[in-house]
Design a protein that fits this description.
- The protein is mostly beta strands.
- The protein has five domains: 18-195, Jelly Rolls (Sandwich); 205-278, Immunoglobulins (Immunoglobulin-like, Sandwich), CATH 2.60.40.10; 302-429, Immunoglobulin-like; 516-664, Macroglobulin (MG2) domain (Immunoglobulin-like); 670-748, Macroglobulin (MG2) domain (Immunoglobulin-like, Sandwich).
- The protein is 2% helix and 50% strand.
- The longest helix is centred in the N-terminal third of the chain and has 6 residues, at 9-14.
- The protein is elongated and about 125 Å long.
- The chain starts with a strand and ends with a strand.
Amino acid sequence: MKHLTCISLILFLTISAHATIITLGSGSGTNSGTSYPAPYGNWWWGAKHQILIKAAELTAEGMSAGDLNSLAFNVQTANGNALEDYSVSIKHTVSGTASSFESGFTTVYGPVDYTPSLGWNTHTFTSPFFWNGTDNILIDICFNNTSYTTNDKTYYSSTSFTSVVFSIGDNLGVCSSPGFVQTSSDRPDIQIDWTEPSIPPNAQFNASTLFTCSGLICFTDLSTNSPTQWLWDFGDGATDNTANPCHTYTSNGTFTVTLTATNAFGSDSETKVSYVTVGLGASVPTAASCTPSTLNGALGFGITNVQINTLNNTSGNSIEGYGDFTCQQTTLFAGQSYSIEVTFSGPSTSNGVAWIDYNNDGILNDVTEKIAEVLAGMSMTENIIISPSAVLNTPLRLRVSADWDFEAVPNPCSDSEYGQVEDYTVIIEQDTSPPEANYTSDVIKSCDGVVQFEDLSTNIPISWLWDFGDGSTSFAQNPTHTYTASGPYDVTLTSTNVFGSDTETIVGYVSIALGDQLIPASCTPTTLGYCCDYGIYKVQLNTINNSTTNGVEGYQDYSCEYKTDLFEGSSYFLEVRTGPNVHDTKVWLDYNNDGNFDDATEVILDAPNQINPSTSYTVPIGFSTLNTALRMRVISDATGGISNSCSDQTFGQTEDYGVEIIDPISVSEINENDINVYPNPTYSTLRINTGIYHSIEQLHVVDVTGRIMKIQKASNNWSEVDVSILRPGHYFIIIYTNGNRFSKPFVKL
């Protein structure tokens, strides 16, 4: 909120702005009658100079933004000759040295014939030039006679930077088209007449913190246009008239702060509504066993914002050191999930860690009480579950630490070399809500029937009832179950606590395909040390289309979950998507199903030093174990990282898939016209009829990724399959008949 106080015109006209003469340079040396730089030099017909003055030089003399009214050069020896069309122009510049001529000047003096005299020669501007107070200024001086004499000698001082660029010549075009350019750090001594602007201040300020537990807050005036008086209203009835006061609040609340800044030309007010918050006497945690400090906060690392639940605190960076914000608190519920978000500052990334002193002993355990961690980030965001064993209804310490990732990862008591530590308060209460049942499993398709289930229920359940869909149940929280028959199964979990129960049922959650189990591989390679986005991002072959993370996952066995059928003699597109670096990629197919991968006969893709390799793979005839699930191995690693199918990867990884090679001759014995699948699309029941000569032995329903969703046995030439539990989408019905196999697509509505 801004408020400008206007002063009457009569009063305004009576105020005379105070002019100040600023002198830059006090040298005893001068140019000679034939040397340059020389602002009054006529050894050549004409001379053009551009003289650089840095903003830091002006502010060091006490100048701020304001009007420049004149400039002067100090002459030791005058020769009495007139300089024709002498002009002075000025501009702002960001250049730090005078190396070449610039354009875009404002003419403030002349052109006029001028005869220098002994002493300071003042050139009063036709209109003031307003200096903005922050940029460097560049002064252009030029004249052009039609003959030459000698140079007037002017005093100069040497600068630490190239401060003058000039050009001289015996022609009439020196000012408009200067020739050879020269530079110098010997700058003529200059006097500048400066006047503070005849305008009121622009009031601005900030505070050392927006939340205080002690009540102490320091305020800093940031007003422009040179205020001479200040009036602070802290919102609690107290005021102050110093430029940068510190104020101690004595009561809790949120306060509006106003600054009124005044100079001879008027006043301006800045009001920040509900700007600072005071929390005195808040319940705080047990005293911590240690209080880390910041050893070097000058680089600006540290923590600038912490958010969790209703707590949202913005603070300064590491220059403030340790921050005790324990009077800021939020209430959390045991067993519930919350997001903690921490923003770091600094010229580079930081390591960040957070802890909660769950047992309220004042000692933050770096293992059992760590709730979040990030390495080499500009922020830390993590979903956390509040420990159900926490001390309840008591202020507990939340500690957040961040330091430059060049340093070691912080522990609860380590000093920050460049970052900082902040403490807050959380109060954990018992959640009186019933559970929200949820679960996951290690696989959703199993070829050996073994599935490990994991309870993900919230709100602290104390008992569990699992129904695995095959007539078996379990009361364990995280049970392992072995299915003994193939097919899709619905899985139900009921979670209970003293406040109620909740049930989660997922239809067709797991798919069991006992007949698809591959023989074990002779070896299982590992990733020795993931780095730099190496590894496998996607594998595509026929119906296999599996996207994964990368080498950080290490070895992955997808041979059951992702399986495809290939026909002898047919060609298929095979692609392995890798990370952005060049990789060595190799793919084997265990044709003879012995668990080993032969480098001479079983390699189907060999792509060294490539990104995202692909090939057209033709299945050889008469070479494979037919109608049997075979293992396909994919390895991708940094160049030079693959020696054989069993070698561990340096940075990349290994993935295994399932492939079944079908004899096209046996399949062709079934006339496609003999097989009818109807109705298609269907809502619930799919009917299959293979004609009078082909008896159905088994039916597989698979989705578009190759996952088996249902297996059903049959013994005649027709069958019905209940697909009502399937989600709407595209599927295949795989028909096994008379030792042959055939596939038909269908749509589930």
